[in-house]
Amino acid sequence: MDRARDFERQGFLVLPGFVPPAACDALRTRADELVAEFQPETVSIFTTHDQTRTSDEYFLSSGDAIRFFFEEDAFRPDGSLRQEKALSINKIGHALHDLDPLFDRFSRTQELAKLASELGLKQPLLLQSMYIFKQPHIGGEVNCHQDATFLYTEPSTCLGFWFALEDATLENGCLWALPGGHTLGLKKRFVRAEGGGTAFQVLDPTPLPEEGMVPLEVEKGTLVVLHGLLPHRSGANTSSKSRHAYSVHLIDGTAHYPEDNWLRRAPSLPLRGFGPYV
Question: What is the pTM of this model?
């Protein structure tokens, strides 16, 4: 398999058995521990339907922190949780790969460094990470999008590593991707607005096509690699089974990272590549 050729052609790769089951389980256990330790003072809800709703300070300052975001349907009208906290979190983001030792080691392996180089990153830097729960019954859909909208560089270098920590199926909200869709160009950018908050900067008003998308049903331990310009989405989880996943996004250190990007980091936590584990 010529991974670079296949990636260039279709904009994604599906690599079964990339991560041993024990490593998946260890990450799940650690995520459960982090959620158990989390005492919510600020409630932030993650939704891709109305991105400005997440544009609070808790979200905007999460680029160099470990923050917890609730599912949109986790709350009753009076603001109380419908179920226990552990079954209400949408995701943890966005610097697990730098601030938690276990996630750090998982994210920085020789295999991943080799793959990033193979796919064209000259100076790979790990920009953000997310632990995604896709909770049973309430795991929300993620609308069709391009990762480079949120992780923009000039030229575009965003690369996503998405690890299935459980089997991902049509029933529990697997990924869908548009083969070859990465050639369509970037449609918009998610930026910090001048007056505060965030805004979408439209680069091309043509909507992302969803016709022709294929489901990526994958087994636990599979790595899905996503081109930053690839249109992809995931369905809602209406099943009784969760769909835990972990994703890391990389950019090339040789590219320009604009100051109006939403994700910022303090100088005390600069972006790092794959050391010291490789």
Answer: 0.92
